[in-house]
Amino acid sequence: MINVFQPSLGAEELEAVQEVFESNWLGHGPRTRDFEARFAEHLGVEPEHAIFINAATAGLFLATELLGLGPADDVVLPSVSFVAAGNAVAATGARPVFCDVDPRTLNPTVEHVERALTPRTKAVLLLHYGGLPGDVAAIADLCRARGIRLVEDAACAVASTVDGKACGTFGDLGVWSFDSMKVLVTGDGGMLYVRDAELARRARRLAYYGIEQVSGFAAAKVTDRWWELNVKDFGRRVIGNDLTAAIGAVQLRRLPSFVERRREISRRYNELLADVEGVRLPPALPAGHVGTHYFYWVQMDPAIRDRVAGDLRDRGVYTTFRYPPLHKVPAYGGDAGELPGTEAASESTLLLPLHQGLPDADVQTVADELRKAIEQRAGEARG
Prior knowledge:
By secondary structure, this protein is an alpha/beta fold. The protein has 12 helices and 12 strands. The protein has helices at 11-23, 30-43, 56-66, 83-90, 110-116, 136-146, 197-206, 216-219, 242-273, 302-314, 340-348, 360-382; strands at residues 50-53, 74-78, 95-99, 121-127, 149-153, 161-162, 165-166, 173-177, 190-194, 289-290, 296-299, 349-352. The strands form 3 sheets. It has a 7-stranded mixed β-sheet with strand order 1-9-8-5-4-2-3, sandwiched between helices. A 3-stranded antiparallel β-sheet has the order 7-6-10, with no helix packed on it. Its cofactor is pyridoxal 5'-phosphate. Its EC number is 2.6.1.-.
């Protein structure tokens, strides 16, 4: 089966893991701090603002806690988003208010966000769909003007920028994912960016039980009773560790080549599928925008989309759609009304295999099988 997602791991990562084993220190330690510093440099921020955690989902929950969200608050987020975002908001008692998206980019515009704002809106939680930056700069300006906090779910956008500024750093908080399906992987893991220095310090405490000092060895240098606890907040344990951080540091070094290969595959799909009748390809990036190329999607007549996906699966090509609209999830308990862009995108969009390990021959196979499936199903639909 040709997979949609697949990590690229090899000898360098194994060597890094071996070094951690030999050090006999697997927990939160020097390699964690090194990875945080390297990733902060990648983002163009100071190291103390980047916190390596055990999952991006933990980062989203931590972000809602840091913002003090509660039952009196509304949070605007696109309906085309991952369930982790909806859960992180709803778990605080705040109300998720789902906004529409552009049916071609699957990202909300600043107008979509503005129309969804309410007098109770305390935050906007923005996703960068497929690694496309979207309207993030304008949305950040809108939030600042209205006194609303902006959280960026940059899980798909580890290498995405607008005019040289990293996605995830436009707002007050940003989260990246390093799970096994992402571009940069650590197995499980994520990074949290917090713009405000004091809030960043509190985030570190909350990520480790609310304790001011996470290392007994460090505390032993300044106190005779280093085992005593200094609990500042009621936190939990969501910190990263040196084992996964060592993998992440290698992956970060390899990231430019990963993204370039994904860019090449996207260009190849564009060439191979340009003349397929009834297929719409992803929109071109605006000037100044750099994407991560996490997703490559095509759009087609909703009447044949599911059958085309089934045909491809039967022919050894796995496809999918991410993310099913959250405004249709009963657990979030609200009626978002009409979201025509979201509805159109969710019924017509199909993600094709895209990862840096995908050989040219498989790219050709995917394109050939997609062409055949669409031609067959479109012909049947015409009768």
